Amino acid sequence: MLTIENASVRYGGIVALNRVSIEVRAGETVLLVGSNGAGKSSLINAVMGLVPLAGGAIRFDGQDLAGISSARRSHLGIGYSPEGRKVFSSLSVTENVLSSTLQIPMAKAQENLEWARDTFPLLRQRGDQPANQLSGGEQQIVALARAVSHMPKLLLLDEPFLGLAPVWINRISDAIRELQRRGTTILMTEQMARPALKLVNRAYIMRGGEVRRSGPVEEIRELALAEEYL
Fold first, then answer.
1. Domain 2-226: homologous superfamily in CATH
2. Which tens digit of pLDDT belongs to each residue from 56-77?
3. H or E stretch at 110
């Protein structure tokens, strides 16, 4: 579904990604794990079109994404939940979720909202409340629901456990499992390897803007933990 070949990203003279290649197959959940500054978010942002490539190529469902805007990438079926949640603080919980459905018919958006409410009960319980009044874990649920409210083929999750207490890590993990049962393909980044490795099929270990190791979870779990990519 997603193929990244020799992707490079630079910020001025700083190399954030150096010829990174990864693949995410339909139905998989794949993890990019590494410390802060490893290049994980730069790779996610490149897939979403938020930063330009200095080299290489990104293909989604066989289509080269070069020159395609972030909005158009969303229309093609890529959902995005950014690092730090970034909910719209002036909007209610329901308005936040619906904000990603503007490109689809109203009837379909309402159908998707009901699915999200059934999947994430918080959305029904707190729907009229301003999003900035929620806890960090609750905001992460809203950000996750917003990212999937247009039912993307591929979901990009950037540090979904960042700054969360263990109880919320467990709840977000349950939400990710529900999306997996629905068949959503997921590419996620995390510094916290231990809970993330319980959710994925394969992992890429990143350091200094490069992929250092990759493989199935059974092969790479101990390496990820032993090398302290947490």
1. P-loop containing nucleotide triphosphate hydrolases (3.40.50.300)
2. 999 999 999 999 999 899 889 9
3. helix 106-119
